[in-house]
Write a structure and sequence with these properties.
By secondary structure, the chain is α/β, with parallel strands linked by helices. The chain is built from 36 helices and 33 strands. The protein has four domains: 235 residues, Dna Ligase, domain 1, CATH 3.30.1490; 90 residues, D-amino Acid Aminotransferase, Chain A, domain 1; 134 residues, 3-Layer(bba) Sandwich (Glucose Oxidase, domain 1); 296 residues, TIM Barrel. The radius of gyration is 33 Å and the shape is elongated. It binds adenosine-5'-diphosphate and magnesium ion (MG) (2 copies).
Amino acid sequence: MAKQFIYPFTFGDKSKSDLLGGKGANLAEMVQMGLPVPPGFTITTDACREYLTTGIVPAQLHDQIHVSLANLEKIVGKNFGDASNPLLVSVRSGAKHSMPGMMETVLNVGITPEVADAMAKSSGNEKFAWDSYRRFIDMFGRIVCDLPDEMVHKIEGEYLKKANVKVVAELSASALKELAQDLIKAIEQFTNKPFPKKPIDHLTQSIEAVFKSWNSERAQLYRRRERIPSDLGTAVNIQSMVFGNLSDDSGTGVAFTRNPATGETGSYGDYLDRAQGEDVVAGIRNTMSLADMSKKEPVVHAELERLMKTLEDHYRDLCDIEFTVERGKLWILQTRVGKRTAEAAFRIATQLVDEGKISMDEALMRTSGDQLAQLMFPQFDLSANQNLIATGIAASPGAAVGEIVFNSKRAFDLAKTGRKVILVRRETSPDDLVGMVAAEGILTSRGGKTSHAAVVARGMGKTAVCGTESISVDEKLLQFTVGDLIVREGEVVSIDGTTGCVYLGELPVTQSPVTSYLEGTLLASAKDATPVVKAVDRILQHADEIRKLYVRANADTPEDAQRAKTLGAQGIGLCRTEHMFLGERRNYVERVVLAENESEQNAVIAEMQPLQQADFVGILKAMSGYPVTVRLLDPPLHEFLPDLATLSAEMATAEALNSTITPRDKAIFAAVKRLHESNPMLGLRGVRLGILIPELFKMQVRALVLASLEVQKAGFDPKPELMIPLVATQRELLYLRETLEEEIKKTLNGAQLEMPIGTMIETPRAAITATRLADYADFFSFGTNDLTQLTWAFSRDDVESTFLPRYLDLELLPFNPFESLDQDGVGLLVKIARDQARAYRKDFKLGVCGEHGGDPRSIHFFHNLNLDYVSCSPFRVPVARLESGRAKVIKS
Ligand code: ADP
Ligand code: MG
Ligand code: MG
């Protein structure tokens, strides 16, 4: 049986976008709703897929096009290709997801010189007829025959000059007719083929061109970037024309049911009279606002408002609408749920709740952690004077201001003297790392969201705008140019990594009101709380009410702990004690390493105890009532010592200059050499260090116990937990646990305090032998950073600046596994460990303390695995709260 490749708009609804594409499905939905939609039919994605596999238009499709055309002719009462009563149609591409690179719409298909003549007579408007003809030839030439835009512009230009007018619309009917004929000649020359005469050939060629455009380079690129499968294919919509260019009471426009930029209520849009198709967005003439339109066309405008409300009530969301007015009659040509900014997303969601259209669960679903994160970054104050010079890809969010420099060494040198710089490069490479670290922000003219600059900047949390193609960077002349503008080294620019905007000069930066709210300095109920703050507050509260995952923070200082708590953290999932021995306290570790015997070493360690204890006191106080998981010292000792290469160079110079080398310097050099490891991440660190120098861990335990008792005495409620890093085998855990328990008991000296001891699961071996570890651990915390490194054999610090960007570009990896959990690989290990732990004890406590704890996709994965908590950096806590709530509603 023949496959049905075509459906009239009267079939289907918005749920059928797989088959009919987004545009087609929404057209069908509007027909179902009884809205005035010009009749037409949709060629399915099935037909496109068949074309893409065979390379030819299926024969059945040709037949079905004829049948469908005949039906359409009956409905409209006009005939395709018939000069006396012509039916004209548009050919519109429409895939399930709208994407750049798909074929543009061809309007007025069916028109010929004879048809145009007849249209001139029947409408009494000769110019309208030949403008329609000219538009068809222009579009068919550029879009279907690939005639370059420049050639069209050149020919048009000659006519404009001759007639001394500015835009094509002002040409006379006869000039328009001649222009069309010249365009045909150009097309014939360009394609080296006679221009097809028959409308049916125009139609089928346009349809085929839509199919082909599915595989255009831009579409392929976009699909890869957005992870849209490449085999979906596109639908094609054939729709009878309505003419906004027919008369003074005709026109075309776009409308939004609410403001998509701010979320404000009230319709919002543009209208252009005597215009067709995309004229309204092409900037040929100044458009009217809908308010202006209501003055010119009050009746049509009222009807438009009514239909907009109908559409919004029906879709229960912001709608983006295309319409055309033909001699005072309103037609709707397209609708879809409108794209919106982060601010608008939160505001519109809560408005719709208040209007009784959606539930709080739905409101939560319609916002996202990424949007919330966007709202939290510092922003440029755009009420100030601004000079936007270019727009690139928003690669890493934030607002950065600085003088531009063109090489990394210079960026580093200037930053060292306290200057703020923006590193500008064509693209960056691993050699630029020092400059990237030193710069406030990074601006490149090439590369996309997965370029080296973008990946590394995101990893560092640094603002970046990439792929700013309109600027050309001259790294020799130390300047970049945009058009005629030359910007030289030392000039100040402001770059917005959230929008991709590049401004010349310094723009003031303001803290986002959402951040002030989240940090507790602005109450949602306050008078000066902006609507978006109120909206975020409501949605976040709802997320908190329903979510199952607890959200903790990774924090190492009392200040961070306090901040995390304000941001909504329900405890600390990872307190990295090594951070307490950096800076000035480095010399303690140095002395531990240099100690000549154990008792000397123990003496130094004893000196460290009060420092550590004081830190714990602050953190436990800040987190009173909430668990604080303290991880025992993890990194290799040499991380606290000077770097071997630098030291070697210094020693060599000293020797050459015959200057004296102190015994201490000698000792340090020897120690650094002794401790030097080829693969420190796989060397003496974590639990291994604790086994080699037990006194270190014992001291940490004593400090934590004493701090807890002190805090308890002061009336707080400390809930300390101890966590052992990098465990791989049960025996390590058992050995250490006994030592630690003994130390706890000794230090408590009869006092009462609970101190669970858990282990990190961050080696693959630990994950797959979790059953055995469960015997000796009160909880597990997945250290997904190390687990990712070890599963992939990727050293994070190295791969992100070397080959990872290339891998992402080539799509050898779908995303950076350090940003979002690799669910198939690393995720499987987490799942295995979860299964074993929960089989051992049904309520075995499981958490995540890697950076994935703040990543939306990963959070949904952890929720679905039924883990107890995620822990992330304080700044990500609100995002994790929101996404944990979303995970709950999206799942159920
Ligand atoms: P896009 O997907 O790029 O928005 P569209 O298919 O929506 O492309 O069409 C481009 C323009 O042509 C829009 O302004 C649309 O409203 C207009 N248009 C499409 N079909 C018709 C038609 N049958 N009659 C009048 N205008 C049309
Ligand atoms: Mg378009
Ligand atoms: Mg459109």
